[in-house]
């Protein structure tokens, strides 16, 4: 019987928010996301995401369904977010990456996020980020835009 050489393909990523490309998701990618969320996102990694968006600290607290005071404590104590908050952070990062892909730049995507949108019932896309259903709706809308479906 012939023996085959095997190599370990396990990779460690120091900054998990860097590994999601929305279009590159297979079951393994989803399981990695679940694992990252269960371990929790550190405030340091969260802070890198915050810098990409023009949202206030209070808006971020609202997206994560925690008080601004709690978010400040997380920052001060360099805490790790729980699973649900980590999932939301990952979803927002995925939305950001997808928006960059569709619009070709983060600047155009951020303008879209802050502008009233007829296809979304005259709602600003950023107002939907606090809900998992809202993020899913925004992902769908980005796909429609990518394919030229404007309404």
UniProtKB/TrEMBL annotation:
InterPro entries: Antitox_Xre, Xre-like_HTH, Xre/MbcA/ParS-like_toxin-bd
Pfam family of the protein (one): Xre_MbcA_ParS_C
Top-rank lineage group of the source organism: Bacteria
Domain Antitoxin Xre/MbcA/ParS-like toxin-binding: 99-148
Residue span, Antitoxin Xre-like helix-turn-helix domain: 34-92
UniProt-recorded name of the protein: Antitoxin Xre-like helix-turn-helix domain-containing protein
């Amino acid at each position: 019987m012939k023996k085959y050489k095997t190599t370990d393909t396990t990779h460690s990523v120091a900054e998990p928010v860097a590994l999601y490309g929305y279009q590159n998701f297979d079951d393994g990618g989803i399981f990695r996301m679940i694992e990252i969320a269960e371990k929790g996102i550190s405030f340091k990694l969260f802070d890198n995401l915050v810098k990409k968006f023009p949202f206030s600290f209070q808006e971020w607290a609202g997206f994560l369904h925690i008080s601004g005071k709690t978010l400040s404590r997380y920052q001060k104590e360099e805490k790790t977010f729980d699973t649900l908050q980590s999932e939301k952070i990952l979803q927002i990062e995925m939305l950001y990456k997808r928006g960059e892909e569709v619009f070709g730049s983060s600047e155009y995507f951020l303008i879209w996020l802050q502008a009233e949108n007829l296809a979304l019932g005259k709602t600003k896309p950023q107002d939907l980020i606090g809900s998992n259903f809202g993020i899913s709706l925004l992902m769908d809308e980005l796909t429609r835009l990518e394919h030229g479906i404007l309404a």
